[in-house]
Amino acid sequence: MAYEVLEAIYKNKPITQDCHHDIESFIWVLCYSIGRRWVTNPGKMDKARHDTLSNFFHYNFGRVMVHTILLARIGLSGPLDIAESYPEIVSPPLVPLFRDLRGLIYAAHSPNEAIPLSYEQVFWSLEKAIEELKSL
N or C: which terminus of the chain has fewer CB atoms within 10 Å of its end residue's CB? Predict the structure, then answer.
């Protein structure tokens, strides 16, 4: 769920859900999906590394109360750092994809001049990663 939507729920304030909220939610779900796959099926990852990933995953995605989800996303980076912190769980082109997505999320929540997320921005990053994946 988008940070602004979570914050509005927590503060009991009305919010008009917009397409940029859906785009941000997609990014969070993508991070969750990649982490969840490796937490449930560690493959050749050694136990110590898997335990570290599991702790990272559960800290960032194992919350059930709105205020604890918000706390896990303070700074907006935690979940978005999964590919950079655990590059062995993704194909190499996905590391810069997640870096791009993190930058887009940061820009969308900038206290100075926020740049709302757009489909074009995210699709451009996804297309770039897909082309790199095709060339592997």
Answer: C
- Is the CA virtual torsion 40, 42, 47, 53 positive or negative? negative
pLDDT tens digit sequence for 61-80: 888 899 888 888 766 567 88
Taking the model in full, what pTM does it have? 0.86
Range(s) of the domain holding residue 55: 3-134
What single-letter DSSP state applies at residue 79? G
- Count the domains in the chain: 1
Phi, psi angles (nearest 5°) of residue 26: -60, -40
Q: Which residues contact 20 (CB under 8 A, 6 or more apart)?
A: 2, 108, 116, 117, 118
Mean pLDDT across the chain, nearest whole number? Answer: 89
